[in-house]
Design a protein that fits this description.
With 596 residues, the protein is an alpha+beta fold. It contains 18 helices and 21 strands. This is Arginyl-tRNA--protein transferase.
């Protein structure tokens, strides 16, 4: 090979990424088939295209995820959406538009109450084993056993009141009847909920499931009573009236508030208190006040560059074993490193007052959540020019009651909002893949307003627009919806199917010598004919400008093809064409396609 025909790595590609330099070096693994972890099909029905990245610039990865790619460690994959069993749509959210739901707001308030020491449920100590059937807050268990007969008695009284309302025609006779449940109100909530001198002991929210049951019966003739809809507030008033007809409750008054039925006592000697009061309960409110500051916990969030951390790995093992029931052989250190520590992303340092890079820089990070120094959760994220991309979250099973998955998502969205001041291009929160056909994945759409990536034209479509069609079939060309609405013509025929990989699974482990000329057994006439064909009859193709890495040097394919044998070209060119389709024209001419 003549040295004149070679291009060095520096000549072919130098500092292509505008953020800190560096280049993306990719190896193509072609089409991959595997079993599906979502639909649990025994067949190899999950079909994707795979790449592995030696290095990857943040700009190139941003472009890849905007074409439907995701990474797991250094492995990149993209599902063949029209062929795979569970089409996976990239989902994102503009952080500045995020509107938390009531449930998401409750998650934040619950954690605040936990930190303030106002939440009844408490986690176990660090070294204590947590069994699957052992609830947190076992300090209450003995007390709960003592008050159970009283709560059961009050529940039966409410059930009898429900029957009275059905017999009188106030409730539909054909509705499913929810069983009443009465709960004890612990002392740290009594002062907040009770009004006046009476002491709040128990409460029931049975009016809410009754209201839902009535609505489901679709009996319009019973939908209103005296012009009032059967809301939980109305139902609780009706039950209060019916309970007075069932039997008396000496020493206890029953009141309703916002749909809740509350049982109160003005006397410490009431029938219920005789059974339920523990020796220390009369001092509970006072002790809560005195010890409030001592019990207050501190939550810290620490963002650090991706690296192996022994403490994180131990938490990951506990999470995978207890929450996902993984086989212990699958949570060893090596697999953890490949999955959540190794990253091909080239770190980009912040540069003073540069508004293009946030203070932490760009790259792969671990966000640690600590309560009083104890590691309770770790969020693995990629911070890219346009977004924070969520990779994975694992948390302490002892803290399941805090819904740390939802809480961390809210915090990551807030992080994007806060850091957009430092990096104007940073606008979005990417939640990974959304699979409409998998009920466990639908929670991602609860972060609104979100949008899905069209698998054909790579346009973003509002989730609420896409949902009706996804309800009908799992694979949808989403951009057809908006194009139809806007009455715009498309460069592709309406409803056309996306181009797919033309090659089946390809073995790409051949030695590079198989592609190159120079063997002692080569026929001289064939070489001369190949040279003539290369120089005189070659017509420029769409793969000519792909950068190919070979033997530590880099070439545009139009230069490399002159040095290949006909057999080498015949094998390499379909691979390059397939690669160009899945990564796009621009990236195929910017990233290095490494031959191995």
């Amino acid at each position: 090979m003549s040295s004149k025909k070679l291009k060095s790595a520096n000549d072919a590609s130098s500092s292509r990424d505008g953020l800190g330099g560096g280049e993306s070096v990719i190896a193509d693994h072609g089409r991959r088939r595997s079993t599906c972890g979502y639909c649990k099909s025994p067949a190899r029905s999950s079909i994707s295209h795979g790449l592995s990245a030696e290095t990857l610039t943040v700009s190139d990865y941003q472009a890849l995820i905007d074409r439907g790619w995701r990474r797991s460690g250094c492995y990149l994959y993209k599902h063949e959406m029209d062929k795979t069993c569970c089409p996976s749509y990239t989902i994102r959210l503009k952080a500045s538009d995020f509107a938390p739901s009531k449930e998401q707001q409750r998650v934040s308030r619950r954690l605040e109450r936990f930190l303030d020491g106002k939440l009844d449920v408490q986690p176990r100590e660090q070294g204590e084993h947590t069994g699957a059937s052992s609830p947190l807050g076992t300090a209450r268990s003995e007390e709960n056993n003592n008050i159970e007969p009283v709560m059961d008695d009050l529940s039966k009284m409410i059930d009898q009141a429900v029957q009275v309302c059905i017999q009188s025609g106030e409730f539909p006779s054909n509705m499913p009847i929810p069983k009443a449940s009465v709960k004890k109100v612990f002392c740290d909530k009594k002062k907040k909920l009770a009004k006046g001198p009476e002491q709040l002991l128990y409460t029931s929210s049975v009016a809410f499931p009754i209201a839902a049951a009535i609505k489901r019966t679709h009996t319009s003739e019973k939908a209103e009573i005296n012009g009032n809809k059967l809301s939980p507030e109305t139902i609780s008033e009706m039950l209060l009236s019916a309970m007075s007809k069932v039997r008396e409750t000496p020493g206890v008054s029953i009141k309703v508030s916002k749909g809740h039925i509350n049982f109160l006592s003005a006397s410490q000697d009431s029938f219920s208190e005789k059974h339920v009061t523990t020796p220390n309960e009369t001092l509970c409110a006072k002790k809560d006040s005195e010890n409030h500051k001592a019990r207050k916990l501190k939550l810290e969030m620490r963002l650090k560059k991706s690296s192996f951390d022994r403490e994180e790995h131990e938490l990951y093992k506990r999470y995978q074993l207890k929450v996902h029931n993984d086989n212990p052989s699958h949570v060893v250190e090596s697999s953890y490193r490949r999955f959540l520590v190794d990253s091909p992303l080239i770190y980009v340092q912040p540069s003073g007052d540069d508004e293009k890079v946030p203070p932490c820089g760009f790259g792969s990070f671990h966000q640690q959540y600590r309560v009083d120094g104890r590691l309770v959760a770790v969020g693995v994220v990629d911070i890219l020019p346009k977004c924070l991309s969520s990779v994975y979250l694992f948390w302490d099973p002892d803290y399941a009651f805090l819904s740390l998955g939802k809480y961390s998502a809210i915090q990551e969205i807030n992080w994007v909002r806060e850091n957009q001041v430092h990096c104007q291009s940073l606008e979005y929160y990417y939640l990974g893949y959304y699979i409409h056909s998998c009920s466990k994945m639908r929670y991602k759409a609860a972060y609104r307003p979100s949008e899905l990536l069209c698998p054909l034209r790579f346009q973003w479509v509002p989730f609420e627009v896409a949902r009706p069609l996804l309800d009908k079939k799992p694979y949808v060309i989403l951009s057809d919806i908006t194009e139809s609405q806007n009455q715009c013509s498309s460069s592709l025929p309406h409803g056309s199917e996306p181009r797919t990989n033309e090659h089946e699974e390809m073995e790409q482990g051949e030695t590079n010598d198989h592609f190159m000329g120079g063997s002692d057994d080569d026929d001289d006439d064939d070489e001369e004919m190949d040279e003539s064909e290369s120089e005189d009859t070659h017509i420029e193709s769409d793969i000519d400008n792909i950068i190919v890495g070979l033997y530590g040097s880099q070439y545009r394919y139009k230069d490399l093809r002159k040095m290949l044998t006909p057999v080498g070209r015949k094998q390499l060119e379909p691979m390059l064409q397939s690669y160009r389709k899945v990564v796009g024209d621009e990236l195929s001419e910017r990233m290095v396609y490494e031959l191995r």
